[in-house]
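User: Please predict the structure of the protein below. I'd like the answer in structure-token form so I can feed it into my own downstream comparison script.

Assistant: Understood. Taking the following sequence of 219 residues as input:
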Amino acid sequence: MQPCRPNRAIALVAVVVIAAACGSGSPTASTGGSTSTGPAPSLPGTPGHFDDRTVSFDYPTDWPVIAGVHTPLIPVIYVLAVLGNGTWSENCQSSADGSSKSCGSDLVSFPPGGVVVKVYRYWGSPAPVCRGDVQANATLGPNAVRKRVDGTTTSWELRSPGNEFQQPNNIFVEAHTDDPGQLAKAAGIVASFRWNMSTYSGGNCPTAQGDSPSPSPGN
């Protein structure tokens, strides 16, 4: 089994959230999500194609759905999907008196040759500051993205139209695997990602306006 290595962008935001949340009490009760309880999760769209009318992407039909659309205990991110043949759960705690909450890195494991992929929207804070940060370091399909690799964890950040990198409302695809074939399938999710511009209002940075980092469906 391989451990999760957190995305650095989210880790920085998590520190801020945890610091704000720990004003009273000590965290004692785990309230993180579980991969083994409740009804089997499902995703909007059709098997192998996620579509919530705002964004869409393709995913391998042989990857089980571990978790569907939801907001974690502390809403720094908005999870669209968790897929794969490993295990995944959120790592959140609340204080004994329930007055504060905090979340650490997700708890992720996968068998040799296995994979866990999380697709999520980054909310974060504070309000975005436009700095001209639009330089990608990889292109998958029509999407110019920012790729990071940390051991067996690879993440790709997709800018929402009109956004810069490292801004709220961007999409992250985070893959945990030691298998090149599984990693290629995860990259396929990134390549297939589309924004539905009929329902998305776009970002607020003039430096990124007119940019099309990931085109709308059908384009």
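That's the full token string. The chain has one domain: 8-195.
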